[in-house]
Specification:
The protein contains 1 helix and 8 strands, in the order αββββββββ. By secondary structure, the protein is an alpha+beta fold.
Length: about 140
């Protein structure tokens, strides 16, 4: 084996693990114990009744996933300096409505502060009502 062959073999060994590590973004998930405080509610008692929940915030590369159990999985992109923004929609055909959920906020240290909105529409896209909640919590 000549010197050039040894150099190429060494380069391949050194670069390959780094290249594969960069192509697979590492995923991290943090659980937050959060409380919801109603800000606005035009649903006349027919919407969500949120008080507290365990919320999972997952990040893989620049993709963000927020899971609020028994409600929705919201997806979005990771922002700068701890900002988060995610949304999802869900259809309830048996009730004849569609819901659009969104969350905007920030993670600072082990604290999460955000605003969660729920917008409801008839299946024909006629608006019904809107709810918004302030969300705050600490990682567990």
């Amino acid at each position: 084996m000549n010197l050039l062959s040894k150099y190429i073999a060494l380069t391949v060994l050194c670069v390959s693990p780094l290249a594969s590590a960069q192509s697979k973004p590492s995923a991290s998930t943090t659980q937050y114990a959060v409380t919801f405080n109603k800000i606005v509610d035009s649903c006349d008692g027919k919407g969500l009744k949120l008080q507290s929940a365990s919320m999972a915030v997952s990040q893989a590369g620049d993709t963000l996933s927020i899971v609020i159990p028994d409600l929705a999985t919201l997806t979005g992109k990771v922002g700068r300096r701890g900002k988060l923004r995610a949304s999802s929609s869900r259809e309830f055909k048996s009730k004849g409505l569609r819901a659009r959920f969104g969350i905007n906020g920030r993670v600072t240290g082990n604290s999460l502060r955000a605003v969660f909105t729920a917008e409801y529409f008839k299946l024909d896209k006629t608006p019904l009502c809107t709810q918004s909640f302030s969300v705050s919590g600490k990682s567990s």
